[in-house]
Amino acid sequence: MKLISILILVTQLIFIIPKTSAQFRYQLCGDPYSTPSSYQTNLNTTLNSMSSDTRINYGYYNFTTGKNPNKIEATVLCRSDISINDCRSCVHYSVTTLPVACNNTKQAFAFTDNCVTYYTDSKAFHVLTDEPNFALRFDGNTTTVPKLKFNSSLTTLMSSLKHKASLGNSEIKFATGKIDLTHNQPLYGLVQCSPDLSKDDCVDCVEYLISSVFYKYFIIAKPLFIAKGGRVVSPSCNVRYELYPFFKNVTYNAQPPAANRNTTSAQGITAHSRKSTKITEIVVPIVGSLVLIIIASVCILLRRKKQKTKFSASFNKEEMDTLQSLQFSTGVIKVATQNFADDNKLGKGGSGTVYKGKLPNGQEIAVKRFERDAVLGEEQFKNEILTLAKLHHRNLVRLLGFCLEGDEMLLVYEFVVNKSLDNFLFDPIHRKAMHWDTRFKIINGIARGLLYLHEDSRLTVIHRDLKAPNVLLDSDFIPKIADFGLAKLFKTDQTQALTSKAVGTRGYMAPEYLSQGQVSIKSDVFSFGVLVLEIVSGQKISSFQIGENLENLLAFAWKCWQEGKTWSVIDPMLCSTSSTEILRCIHIGLLCVQNNMGDRPTMSDVSLMLSSISMTLDAPFQPAFFTQSRAMLLSEPSQGSASDQSNGRSCSTNDISLTELYPR
After folding, report:
1. Where in the sequence of the chain do the CATH 1.10.510.10 domains occur?
2. Residues of the chain with CATH 3.30.430.20
3. Could you please report the per-residue DSSP string of 174-225?
4. Contact 157, 189 (CB under 8 A)
5. Which residue intervals are annotated with compositional bias (Polar residues) in the record (predicted)?
6. How far apart are alpha carbons 349 and 9 in whole angstroms?
7. What residue spans of 414-495 are helical by DSSP H?
8. Residue-wise pLDDT tens digits, 549-562
9. CATH number for the 421-647 domain, one of 2.60.120.10, 3.30.70.260, 3.10.520.10, 1.10.510.10?
10. Does CATH place domain 134-242 in 3.90.1150.10?
11. How far apart are CA 454 and CA 600, in angstroms?
12. CB environment 253-262: b (16+ within 10 A), e (fewer)
C-alpha cells in the first residue's frame, strides 16, 4: 500500500512539475529514523508549511516543528536573481519530491538550478553547514587562456564576490560579477550565503568551498583541463562560475501590503488621534525613567573615565569605531576563566599567558593575558587586534574580541581543540600519529592561509613569524595560523618595506629580512619553506640531527637534493608512504628557501604546485644560509626562549603566541 501511494505521488509530480531547471541536480539522503510516526508527522507538517508559504521573504524559507528527538528544521534557499514565482515553484517541487526520494530518513539535501533544500533533525538555523556539499563541473580544454591565468582570475573573482555577499543583510547575502580573462572573454561568477549566517560565517563557508572543494574537483581531479564552468553547493552557501552570463537581473524587493498603500485620509486621521493619545499616556513615565538612566550613566562614565582614557590613548577614533563591537569586559573574562585559575592555564609565551575559558552561552574560548612589561607587549596587542579584526579565513585563528581595562590587556580567541603543530610534529610519541595524509593536509592549509593573507584578503598582510608553534590544529587537524602580533600591513600597491630592526624567530627569517630589514611577501614564503621541510623531516630547524651529528636542515636538504638522495631528508616514520608527493613537497620547500627572494615563488604559485601534480617544477637554486656557520643560523635567543629550547618546551592546547624576538 505504501509503495502504491509513492507511485501515485511520483506520477502526479511527473505531470505537475516541469522537468527543466526544477529537477534535482543532486540529492543526498541521511540515516533512517527510528520513530517513524512522530518524526514523519513533524516532517510533513514542516514541509507543508514551507510549500504553502506565500510571503515575500526574499527567497529564503525556514520552518521548524516538534521537539527533540523528533524535531525537524528545514530550509530552502532560492537564487536571488530569479523571480518569486520561479522560487515558489522550486520550493514546491523540492519539498514535495525530496521526502519521496529520501523516504524515512532523518536528513536530506538536494539542489536544482534555482534552489537548495535541506532538512535535518539537528540544528540548521544560524549554523554554518558546509557539508554535505556537491560539485558540478563542465570540462573543456581552453588553449587561449593559460591555466595559471584562468585559476588566478577565478580566485580574484571569487574573493571579491564572497566579501560582497557577506556584506548583505538578514534577508539577502548574494553577489554576482565578472572579470576579464582576455579582451573578449569574461568570466562570470556567483556567490550566495544563507541570510541567517553572520558575515564571518558567510566568508568562512565560501572560503571552505573554494579552498577545499574547488581545488579537489576542479584542479586536482583533471589537472590537464580547465573546468570552463562549475558550481559547488552546500546547505549554507554556494558558488558558481561560467564563461557566459548565466545569472539574471531579477532580485527580490520588499513591497508594503496593498491595504497599507490604499488607506483613506479618514483612516489616517483616526490613526493620528489614537497615536496622540498613546504618546500622552507613555511620555511622562518615560521622561522620569530617562532622568534616572542619565544619572546612573553619569556615575558609570565617571567610574570608567580612567579606563576609557587608556582605551582612547591606545587607538584612534577610526580604530575605536571599528573595534567597539569586539570589546569584552574584564568581569566577563574573569568569570569565563575562573579568575585566570592555574587549572585553566594553557601555556605561556614571550608576551603573555593563555587561558582556557567558557562564556555564559557555553562557547569555549582561549584568552591571552598580556604582560605589560613584555618586550613590545602593548604594540603587539594593538597590532594583533587591528589585523585579525579584519581577517576571516578557515586557516586563520579567529579573534572574538579583546579587553583593555585598567592594567589588563586581554585577547579572546576561538578555542582550538588540538595542540599546536610543534607539539605533534616534534614529539617522538605524537609524531607517530602524523601520517603523511595529515601532514600534507596541514601543508595545504597553511599555504591557503598565507595565500589569503598575501592576495585574497582586503589587506596585504605579512605575518613575519610563521613557525610550527604558531600553527594551531583543530579536531580534524585543520591548521590555523595564529599570533599576528608582529604582522605588517601593506598598502594596496605596496610590495615591500624596510624595518629598523628584524623581529621574529631565527631560522625562519629570510636572509634579506635578517640582514637588511627588507620585508615582503617573499619573507613569509621563506618561512613557509622552512616549515614544509620541518613537516617532512619531523625535526626542528634549530636542532636538525642525523644520527649523532647536528646538521643545518636547509644545507642538508640541498646536499641530498644535489646528490639524488632526497629520501634521506624524510622522517623515517613516513618510510612506508608513497614517495612522489613527499619528494614534491621537499622540492617546493627548497624553491621557497632560495637565497634570492626573486627566485622564490609566490603563495599562489605554491598552491598551484601543491594541487596540480602534473605541473613541472623549476630546479631550485642554493638555499639561504648554505655557506653560513651553524652558530649564525642557530644562535641562542637573547631573551625569553633560551629556557624553552633547553627544557623541550611543552606548548599548550591553544598556544596562541610563542613569539621569540631577535634584534637585528
Report:
1. 421-647
2. 18-120, 134-242
3. EEEEEEEEETTEEEEEEEEE-TTS-HHHHHHHHHHIIIIIIIIIIIISSTTS
4. yes
5. 637-657
6. 65
7. 421-425, 436-451
8. 567 899 899 999 99
9. 1.10.510.10
10. no
11. 14
12. eeeeeeeeee
CATH class belonging to 319-414: alpha beta
Residue type, 403: C
Digit-coded pLDDT (tens) for 546-598 = 665 567 899 899 999 999 999 889 998 887 666 789 999 999 999 999 999 99
Does the annotation count 465 as an active-site position? Answer: yes
Among the listed residues 86, 130, 201, 465, the single catalytic one is 465
Helices (H), 304-329: 305-314, 317-323
Report the C-alpha gap between 76 and 74 in whole angstroms.
Answer: 7
- With beta carbons less than 8 A apart as the criterion, state whether 399 and 384 touch: yes
- CATH class entry, domain 18-120: alpha beta
Q: pLDDT (tens digit, 9 = 90+) per residue, 467-503? A: 999 999 998 899 999 988 888 888 666 667 777 677 7
Q: Report yes or no: 350 and 657 within 8 Å, Cβ to Cβ.
A: yes
| CA triple 597-605-205, angle to 5 deg | 125
Residue 345 labelled as part of a binding site: no
Strand 460-462, strand 364-370: pairing: unpaired
Q: Cβ atoms within 10 A of the Cβ of 40, count?
A: 16
In sequence order, which residues have a C-beta less than 8 Å from that of residue 53 and are 6 or more positions away? 61, 63, 91
Q: Which residue from 647, 215, 220, 637 is spatially nearest to 467, judged by alpha carbons?
A: 637
Here the cell at position 52 is 504553502
